[in-house]
Amino acid sequence: MHDISMTDEQAIKATVKTFILKEFLPGEDPAALTDTTALVTTGILDSIAVLKAVTFLENQFGITIEPHEAVVENLNTLSDMARLIMTKKMSPASQ
Amino acid sequence: MKTDVLIIGGGPGGSATAMFLLNEGIKPIIVEAETFPRYHIGESMTGAGGKVLRDLGLADEMYKRKYPTKQGVKVYGQSAQGSWFVPVTGRDENWKLFEWDTWQVRRSDFDKMMLDEAVSRGATLIQGKAINPRRENGSITGAQIRMADSDKLEDIESQVLLDCSGQATWLASLGGFTGPKYLGAYDKQIAFFSQVTNTVRDNGGTRETDKDNTIIFYQKKYHWGWFIPLDEEVVSVGIVCPSAYFLDKNESKRDFYIRELRELHPELSRRIPEIKLVEDVHVIPNYSYQVNGFCGKGFICIGDAHRFIDPIFSFGLTVTMREGQFAAPIIRGYLEGANRDKPNPFADHQLFCEMGIDVLEDVLDSFWEHPLSFAHCVYSRYTEYMTDMFAGRIYGHERQPTPALHSFRKLLKREGERERSYESSDLYSIPIGSRYHPERAAIWEVNSPVETTEKWLGPR
Predict the structure, then answer these.
(1) Which residues contact B126 (CB under 8 A, 6 or more apart)?
(2) Mind telling me how many Å the CA of B153 is from chain A's nearest CA?
(3) Which of A65-69, A86-90, B129-133, B245-249 ranks highest by mean pLDDT?
(4) Which helix (H) or strand (E) holds B75?
(5) Could you tell me the CATH number of the domain that includes residue B253?
(6) Beta bridge partners of A74
(7) Phi-psi sector, B113: left (phi>0), alpha (psi -120 to 50), beta
(8) Which residues on B lie below 8 Å from A51 (Cβ)?
(9) What does each C-alpha distance from B441 to B157, B182, B243 come to in angstroms?
(10) Is B363 inside any structural domain?
(11) Residue B207 contacts residue B280 (beta carbons within 8 Å)
């Protein structure tokens, strides 16, 4: 079992944030992308960008995101994504 | 006049079925009201659709006539930057995937080629309009035809009548012969289409950038466009949206169409810098429907004559020609005496076809209801299974339902309690979105506060 802590969650958010800024929002002020910035529902990320992010999350954190998990509720903000990853990493099936 | 098999409708469904019957040693009569060539929509084929033409020995003719060869479908998301591509594939005898191509067809030309071919192989063509089916002892035994040349009525007696009338749904619309005709989930959609020239096509080099591919432009839920090359110059372009959106615009169909070409999607407008139409703007509203009990004593409805869901992934031609291919050996068995005493001699065929199109319906509903999950399946999770679905390999013997489809059914809450039951022949296939369905979803209201079917259904 992984030792899940706040530090992990913060580290996950930082990693995902760096990826999104670099891939989809080059030149954007990093401070403008907060943990709760809605990325999908506001159209900041279109569906293809979201898929690239999903692939990144899978590779980076060694998890498999099932189709029923690839929904807006799990991917809209950095916090949503971090929560999904934490949940997946705690579930033995995804190890 | 007497015949073993009477085919109502000389479109590709009727012609292909006639050719497969001829392969079984059966010479059918085809009744067609219109003089070909005539305009028709439905111009793209999937991989499985192309295979039907190959099975009929028509591949060389298709290449000779220079129908554009389609390598795949490219789908653009809401912005011009993002797209995904699904290549056309086939499966070999070991079910191994291989790269294939299929065709885009100008229907006026293609339909005439198919009908001429069916006639040259031995089918009899009668120009006329089917008026009424003949019925004896609860069985359909032919049809009354108004002959085109003499305007006289003539009875043609048949052992099996095939309704290949397409969206006219001839038999179902008469009432009392088939089961009820239900409106489908997309019955409040409307499609506008025409043909344009002077377009910017992809420049080739890879399968994904082939100049003859189908391109889909997704603007938002239920609002999209198609781009289907018909030859070196001309491209079929369609706009599909909720009818309420069109009415709200208060424009003529032509003005609406032209404005949408400019505004629907940046990639679409880039590809049509100067709008030149070579065809009127055509409109088809409320195209989504389903007929229950589409096979029975003495009759089978084929393809669009019993069901049409949504045009987005070009399944129409494929499904209608495949259903004809599946029906031909069953009809031969029936003519030789099989299942004569059963209340529905073609019940197994009916169920087989229905289950296949139910796969299609779940794929289409998932695309609209869960675009992210759908794209995730295409893009990475179930690429091979999604290739099968896009190719039109949707039937039981084609390893359906696949794990991808189970995922979709889970998302759509169509597993467990809401799973379609195929035991009750009257109820299993009423479309989920039908206004007659007990679980009718309110997804079509303009600006509906209800986002998805599941939310409308609520917890159970």
Answers:
(1) B29, B30, B31, B32, B145, B147, B156
(2) 57
(3) B129-133
(4) strand B72-76
(5) 3.30.9.100
(6) none
(7) alpha
(8) 84, 372, 375-376, 379-380
(9) 43, 14, 17
(10) no
(11) no
**Distance (Å, rounded) from C-alpha B268 to C-alpha B180?**
39
Q: Which of A47, A55, A58 lies closest to B371 in CB terms?
A: A47
Residue A70 and residue B373: Cβ atoms within 8 Å?
yes
| Cα of A71 to nearest chain B Cα, Å | 6
Looking up tokens 């469904």 gives B13
**Inside any domain, residue B94:** no
- Using the Cβ of B372 and the Cβ atoms of chain A, whether some distance falls under 8 Å is answered with yes
Among the partner-chain residues B81, B82, B407, the one whose CB lies closest to the CB of A68 is: B407
- Of residues A43, A46, A68, nearest to B373 (C-beta): A68
Is B380 in contact with A75 (Cβ distance < 8 A)? Answer: no
Are B123 and B197 found together in one domain? no
- Strand-pairing partners, residue B70, are B102
Q: Could you report the per-residue pLDDT of B327-363, keeping only the tens digit for each?
A: 999 999 999 999 999 999 999 999 999 999 999 999 9
pTM, entire model: 0.89
What amino acid is encoded at B192 in this protein? F
